[in-house]
């Protein structure tokens, strides 16, 4: 059987190539926009550089997330990957871990870029308000905020996979006419769920930025709920992958 540690580097190669292309395009866009602004205004502005970096970094993050999601979903029906002598559980978890590693790599690159830009412009990398003067409180808040973001992203990927695998399972068992009906119902339910999840996420973000007004207990409970939901979805995905999803013909 193929080891978990052997699958992760194999899955990472294509993801890293794609992410590096996105990073290169992001840097080109930032430099080109700044050069154009300097030529147009005949003056350099540090605030402009920070604004362009933030803009293109945000767009690049969205593209990277979508690209990684595509890599994540392609595994389920990929002939060569599904025929690897490894269990579906091992393939699914190594695929998910690889996707997360890719995103963390991209986030580190963006953090370093913003740090460099802040040093060049002489502006603060981030403004943290509402947490008092305790550095320990600020550090704890950053850690829990990062944990919630990662848990939310993993849950989002698990939800996307769950939807995808349910669709594949429907295709395997239902006639075309009934497939359309079930798909229509699922699209309505999924759209509503995405809107609700988005509202919850922005509420969480606003709470964290305003100094944890809900209190640590509520935030940690919310983090636990995110982890639990993600774990349940992962289990459901592995079950569907084992029982109903075949390689593409």
From TrEMBL:
Keywords: Membrane, Transmembrane, Transmembrane helix
Record-annotated membrane-spanning stretches: 21-39, 51-70, 91-117, 137-163, 184-204, 216-240
Protein name per its UniProtKB record: ABC transporter permease protein
High-level lineage: Bacteria, Bacillati, Bacillota, Bacilli, Lactobacillales
């Amino acid at each position: 059987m193929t080891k978990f540690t052997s699958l992760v580097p194999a899955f990472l190669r294509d993801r890293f190539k794609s992410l590096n292309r996105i990073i290169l395009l992001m840097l080109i866009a930032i430099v080109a926009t700044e050069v154009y602004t300097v030529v147009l205004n005949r003056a350099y502005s540090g605030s402009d550089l920070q604004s362009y970096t933030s803009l293109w970094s945000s767009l690049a993050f969205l593209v990277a997330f979508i690209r990684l999601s595509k890599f994540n979903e392609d595994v389920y029906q990929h002939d060569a990957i599904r025929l690897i002598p490894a269990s579906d559980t091992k393939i699914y978890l190594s695929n998910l871990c690889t996707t997360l590693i890719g995103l963390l790599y991209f986030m580190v690159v963006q953090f370093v870029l913003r740090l460099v830009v802040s040093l060049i412009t002489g502006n603060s990398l981030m403004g943290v308000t509402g947490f008092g003067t305790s550095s320990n409180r600020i550090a704890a808040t950053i850690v829990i905020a990062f944990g919630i973001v990662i848990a939310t992203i993993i849950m989002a990927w698990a939800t996307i996979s769950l939807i995808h695998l349910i669709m594949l399972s429907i295709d395997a068992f239902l006639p075309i006419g009934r497939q359309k009906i079930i798909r229509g119902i699922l699209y309505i339910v999924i759209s509503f769920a995405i809107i609700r999840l988005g509202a919850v996420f922005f509420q969480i973000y606003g709470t964290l930025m305003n100094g944890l007004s809900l209190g640590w207990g509520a935030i940690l409970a919310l983090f636990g709920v995110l982890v639990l939901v993600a774990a349940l979805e992962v289990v459901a995905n592995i079950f569907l992958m084992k029982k109903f999803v075949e390689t593409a013909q």
